[in-house]
Design a protein that fits this description.
Blueprint (H helix, E strand, L loop, with lengths): L1 E2 L3 E5 L11 H11 L7 E5 L14 H15 L4 E6 L5 E6 L2 E6 L26 E7 L3 E11 L7 E11 L4
Parallel strand pairs: 2-3, 3-4, 4-6
Antiparallel strand pairs: 1-2, 5-6, 7-8, 8-9
Length: 172
């Protein structure tokens, strides 16, 4: 899906193969090879995360996707952001110039994550019921993780921005 001229989304199926030779992978590569030169940001959405500190780790299917995206991002005019879920917590990584987000805090049973130093979100707060909010500006895609912070407040639950990041467009 394209949103305007600068933002391109791809929703992938984590059940279907993302391994070399897989039909979905080939389709994605064709789409990435044919990106419009006006696209500044590519957002890839899928269920299983390509990078996570969760005990089960990333699956081979999504690890292969991370490698494919790294190669595509290196030669692209666009910046890449990957949003996945599955792990019921929040994590943020940056690898190969790509921002990888794990955003599984919508209400399922929370899962504790032992955060490595690679995770750019180092809060010990738990659980992390949250949502992501993005804002596209002239030269950036700004992101926020908005967390349910005080469920027992007398006036009702409150929400607070607990993580913030910016992805700058590449210089033309």
């Amino acid at each position: 899906m394209r949103l305007g001229t600068r933002l391109q989304f791809f929703a992938l199926d984590s059940v279907s193969s993302l391994l070399p030779g897989g039909e979905q992978r080939q389709w994605l590569q064709q789409q990435l090879d044919g990106l419009s030169p006006t696209v500044q940001f590519v957002v890839v959405l899928l269920h299983h995360p390509p990078i996570t500190d969760y005990i089960a780790g990333a699956r081979g299917n999504e690890t292969a996707l991370a490698k494919q995206l790294a190669a595509a991002a290196a030669g692209s005019r666009a910046r890449f952001i990957v949003c996945a879920a599955h792990v019921h917590n929040y994590e943020r990584f940056q690898r190969d110039g790509i921002v990888f987000l794990v955003s599984g805090g919508g209400g399922g049973k929370p899962e504790f994550v032992n955060r490595s130093t690679a995770d750019l979100f180092q809060s010990g707060e738990f659980p992390n019921f949250h949502y992501l909010r993005f804002e596209l500006t002239a030269r950036q895609l700004r992101g926020e993780m908005v967390r349910l912070s005080d469920v027992d407040a007398p006036s009702g639950p409150t929400w607070a921005v607990r993580d913030y990041f910016e992805v700058n467009a590449k210089t033309p």
